[in-house]
Design brief:
Mean pLDDT: 60
Largest sheet: none
Organism: Nymphaea colorata
Shape: globular
Helix content: over 70%
Low-confidence stretches: none
Radius of gyration: 6 Å
Protein name: Leucine-rich repeat-containing N-terminal plant-type domain-containing protein
Region (Disordered): 1-21
Number of strands: 0
Distance between the termini: 14 Å
Amino acid sequence: TLEDNEFSGPLPPEIGNLKNL
């Protein structure tokens, strides 16, 4: 999602989700 992209920054959304978990 857009929030995941912002959280992960330049990293792909998958990595953003892992950090979010």
